[in-house]
Amino acid sequence: xxxxxxxxxxxxxxxxxxxxxxxxxxxxxxxxxxxxxxxxxxxxxxxxxxxxxxxxxxxxxxxxxxxxxxxxxxxxxxxxxxxxxxxxxxxxxxxxxxxxxxxxxxxxxxxxxxxxxxxxxxxxxxxxxxxxxxxxxxxxxxxxxxxxxxxxxxxxxxxxxxxxxxxxxxxxxxxxxxxxxxxxxxxxxxxxxxxxxxxxxxxxxxxxxxxxxxxxxxxxxx
Length: 222
Fold this sequence. Notes:
Elements: H1 5-27, E1 40-45, H2 60-70, E2 76-79, H3 87-101, E3 105-109, H4 112-116, H5 121-137, E4 141-145, H6 155-172, E5 176-177, H7 206-221
Parallel strand pairs: 1-2, 1-3, 3-4, 4-5
Helix pairs in contact: 2-7, 3-5, 5-6
């Protein structure tokens, strides 16, 4: 078959354009998808999370960092817990903690000292509500750790105190560990698991505290 000069010239021009386009695409520096930053878990709690009366590095938060390493989860734990802190104290300092640490996950363990001081339950609930909201507004996933008080506080107060954690968790659709001290405070040998003050768990009880937190936190991390 014989091609006319016009046809031949058209084919050459078409091939030249195609080759030029391919070469240009090949030379482009296409953006590379960056890996998501490693999670940062911020723990905002009181003495139960601040290793009160314990050797440094033996509390449940320190054990959490080791658990993450064992599970090969590249995450950093920031323990911002302060002994004696209340929900009011946690609420007051949370904004700065969120700004400084930019956590992807926030664990809130507060409320026990509110009960010990007999603070109004509506105030405790409101403080927790605002803390959860602030953390979520910053894009963090939140895990709430619930507390319970001994029966000697009276059945009405005991039930209302426990329910406020459920109320906060439902209102903001965040997971809840119903009783952070489960398996410790309600254990048959509970007295042997607490320090002399009967408030703070001993070192041997810390793995049980982590065991209460880890299943729910692991879901959030995945």
